[in-house]
């Protein structure tokens, strides 16, 4: 299958201080690289997850794709057409085919518009006045499982889960090829999380759009996505099929993230891995492997030389940046134990 | 000798005993019954978890214990016994002296619970206003506590303002402040919700270690089942303002008796090891808490609901030694087995 969206060597830079202040304080590089050379592609109808903690650059990638943020360098092509260089007006026809669901379900809906206006706003923005707005809003509400009389409500009259559904309906309005979902379950209760994810999965089966999910919640990733990319300080540190990464994480950071995703069982949580310290500041990127300051397997070389991505010998889609990738030891008879250990390829 | 006295005291009287608590919020639309007949014990030296979804009243319960309710709140019945004295009948000044002394609290959002225009140092010294001692002694204690919560080089960091710290570090400062006064009871209202997953692990481990060291009790409010499973000794499950089930953490997680607890545990995607496109959900919505309620509060979403659930509110049924749940089915099962 051909790639719907292809991102190559994307870099996004933010200025941290004005040029004068930088000159006065003698700061050589008054900026941070929030996204640092990221490449990936999404095929038609596929679901890809970007996973990472706050500040890892995952939302910045989404904002750059839909043009809310300019890239420093790199290319973004949608259906074969380079879109990063296009101006706002030139970009518009492509934006019609991508829809974004923003992080805060209630906050991303304008408080003064009714649900009906919110749902038909995309048509107005793109100058499509083809059908009756009322029936269009009704059709969209039906798709996301909300009663038709919700069209008259305002965002403050919706619960978090309902607002999320309206957000999904709004994203679906123009029948996009790609939906970018930024933290689709953030702030929702577990029982409602399931509903929202089931809805997204069902709509994807019916309509066949591709989804880019941005999340820090690995539970979401496991049940929703085909492939996942794990981010740390603006770079991908591990990419591969979701099933494969859950089964055989190779990067120690991935291992820690998976372990930080506890099963609600008082007897099963004892093997959680506690990472030392916090994510380093983007202003002071560590030398060598950027994770070495928190890695429990770090050795001398990790602090000196930046690791290039390597791939698993048995799965070329699975790549990671680590000198000492983890390996599952399978002990005959004790398969359930699945210890992870450091091994050299 | 002292040890014996202590154990006797524990068995005789819990540190905090909430009995039949009812609380309403007056709103223009009518009275919202936010807590109904809530009873809960916090024994000395234990960590009690309160789990529930948004709107279940878990934070309201925590705020009621601390006496931090808004003006439209009205406790209509019940008592909160802390060290044998009823907090609700206490004169307000007496109750205030308990705060920041015997009782302290960690809030959900570490960004807004610290004063942004004052240094960590002055805030940490101020919180010790109940204690004797000079400013420099209090500062030394603050430094010591910052080191214990894992803030490296506290001597250079203590003069900083809250915005100089990251989210995880700020929550550590909040924990340090809350424990600086050596409270008998620490109320933690969703302390890890605003933090990333790897930081959540750190904070849970920190709370666990400090709780053992100081020996205080913790009332830990959370919607995160994994965090509760890891930290708590006992759990109370709340739904729409009622405690529907409570017991030892192992019993609740391994052998849930109330249909809501079961559904809640099933919903947690962390439990589902196999990849699936359809996740379990709890159909329906949390009922409105306006007006009077008859019957079981969960019946509208319960798979097992029958006539009796509509007519009669379930009482607490005891399961095993140390687990109680409010569900009529438990009485039926008993009849069948008897």
TrEMBL record, chain A:
State the CDD domains in the record. ABC_NikE_OppD_transporters (cd03257)
SUPFAM superfamilies hit by this protein: P-loop containing nucleoside triphosphate hydrolases
Compartments annotated for it: namely: Cell inner membrane
* One GO CC annotation: plasma membrane
What keywords were assigned to this record?
A: ATP-binding, Nucleotide-binding, Transport
Concerning its family, UniProt says: Belongs to the ABC transporter superfamily.
Under what name is this protein listed? Oligopeptide/dipeptide ABC transporter ATPase
One Pfam family recorded for the sequence:
ABC_tran
UniProtKB/TrEMBL annotation, chain B:
Q: Which Pfam families match?
A: ABC_tran (PF00005), oligo_HPY (PF08352)
Recorded GO MF terms: ATP binding; ATP hydrolysis activity
Q: Where is the ABC transporter domain?
A: 18-265
PROSITE patterns membership:
ABC_TRANSPORTER_1, ABC_TRANSPORTER_2
Keyword Cell inner membrane listed? The answer is: yes
Its placement in the membrane is given as:
Peripheral membrane protein
Q: Keywords of this protein's UniProt record, alphabetized? A: ATP-binding, Cell inner membrane, Cell membrane, Membrane, Nucleotide-binding, Translocase, Transport
Record bears the keyword Transmembrane: no
Q: SMART domains per the record?
A: AAA (SM00382)
One GO BP annotation is:
transmembrane transport
Subcellular location field: Cell inner membrane
Cellular component aspect of the GO annotation: plasma membrane
> PANTHER family of this UniProt entry?
ATPASE AAA-TYPE CORE DOMAIN-CONTAINING PROTEIN (PTHR43297:SF14), OLIGOPEPTIDE TRANSPORT ATP-BINDING PROTEIN APPD (PTHR43297)
Family the UniProt entry places it in: Belongs to the ABC transporter superfamily.
What is the protein's given name?
Dipeptide ABC transporter, ATP-binding protein
Q: What is the organism field in this record?
A: Mesorhizobium amorphae CCNWGS0123
Q: What is the lineage of its organism?
A: Bacteria, Pseudomonadati, Pseudomonadota, Alphaproteobacteria, Hyphomicrobiales
């Amino acid at each position: 299958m051909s790639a719907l969206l292809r991102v190559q060597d994307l870099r996004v830079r933010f200025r941290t201080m004005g040029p004068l202040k930088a000159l006065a304080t003698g700061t050589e590089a008054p900026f941070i690289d929030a996204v640092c050379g990221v490449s990936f592609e999404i095929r038609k109808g596929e679901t890809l997850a970007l996973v990472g903690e706050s500040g890892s650059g995952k939302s910045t990638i989404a904002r750059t794709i839909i043009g809310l943020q300019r890239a420093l360098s790199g290319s973004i092509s949608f259906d074969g057409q380079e879109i990063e260089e296009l101006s706002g007006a030139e970009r518009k026809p492509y934006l019609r085919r991508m829809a974004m669901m923003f992080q805060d379900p209630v906050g991303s809906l304008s408080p003064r518009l009714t649900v009906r206006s919110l749902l038909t706003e995309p048509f107005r923005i793109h100058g499509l006045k083809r059908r009756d707005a009322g029936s269009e809003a009704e059709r969209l509400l039906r798709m996301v499982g909300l009663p038709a009389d919700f069209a008259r409500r305002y965002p403050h009259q919706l619960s978090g889960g309902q607002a999320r559904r309206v957000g999904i309906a709004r994203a679906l309005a123009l029948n996009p090829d790609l939906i970018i979902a930024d933290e689709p379950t953030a702030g929702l209760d577990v029982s409602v999380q399931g509903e929202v994810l089931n809805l997204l999965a069902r709509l994807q089966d019916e309509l066949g759009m591709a989804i880019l999910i941005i999340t820090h919640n690995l539970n979401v990733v496991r049940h929703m996505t085909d492939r996942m990319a794990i981010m740390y300080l603006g770079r991908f540190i591990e990419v591969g099929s979701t099933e494969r990464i859950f089964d055989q994480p190779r990067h120690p950071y991935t291992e820690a993230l998976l372990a930080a995703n506890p099963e609600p069982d008082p007897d099963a949580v004892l093997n959680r891995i506690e990472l030392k310290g916090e994510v380093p500041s983007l202003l002071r990127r560590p030398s060598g492997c950027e994770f070495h300051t928190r890695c429990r397997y770090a050795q001398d070389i990790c602090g000196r030389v930046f690791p290039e991505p390597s791939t698993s010998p048995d799965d070329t889609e699975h790549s990671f940046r680590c000198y000492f990738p983890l390996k599952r030891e399978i002990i005959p008879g004790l398969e359930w134990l699945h210890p992870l250990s450091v091994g050299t390829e | 000798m002292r040890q014996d006295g202590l154990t006797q005291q524990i068995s005789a009287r819990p540190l905090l005993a909430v009995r039949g608590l009812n609380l309403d919020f007056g709103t223009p639309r009518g009275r919202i019954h936010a807590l109904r007949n809530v009873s809960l014990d916090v024994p000395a030296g234990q960590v009690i978890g309160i789990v529930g979804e948004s709107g279940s009243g878990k934070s309201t319960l925590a705020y009621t214990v601390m006496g931090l309710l808004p003006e439209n709140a009205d406790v209509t019945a019940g008592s909160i016994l802390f060290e044998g004295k009823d907090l609700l009948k206490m004169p307000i000044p007496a109750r205030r002296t308990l705060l920041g002394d015997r009782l302290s609290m960690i809030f959900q959002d570490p960004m807004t619970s610290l004063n942004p225009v004052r240094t960590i140092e002055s805030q940490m010294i101020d919180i010790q206003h109940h204690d004797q001692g000079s400013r420099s002694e209090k500062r030394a204690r603050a430094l010591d506590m910052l080191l214990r919560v894992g803030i490296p080089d506290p001597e250079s960091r203590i003069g900083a303002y809250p915005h100089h710290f990251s989210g995880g570090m700020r929550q550590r400062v909040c924990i340090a402040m809350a424990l600086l006064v050596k409270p008998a009871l620490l109320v933690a209202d969703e302390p890890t919700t605003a933090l990333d997953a790897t930081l959540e692990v750190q904070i849970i481990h920190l709370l666990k270690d400090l709780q053992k060291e100081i020996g205080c009790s913790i009332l830990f409010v959370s919607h995160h089942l994994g965090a509760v499973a890891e930290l708590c000794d006992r759990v109370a499950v709340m739904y729409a303002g009622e405690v529907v089930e409570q017991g030892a953490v192992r019993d609740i997680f391994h052998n849930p008796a109330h249909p809501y607890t079961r559904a809640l545990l099933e919903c947690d995607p962390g439990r589902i090891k196999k990849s699936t496109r359809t996740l379990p959900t709890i159909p329906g919505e949390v009922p409105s808490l306006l007006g009077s309620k008859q019957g079981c509060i969960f019946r509208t979403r319960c798979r097992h609901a029958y006539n009796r659930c509509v007519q009669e509110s379930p009482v607490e049924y005891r399961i095993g030694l140390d687990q109680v749940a409010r569900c009529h089915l438990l009485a039926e099962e008993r009849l069948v087995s008897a």
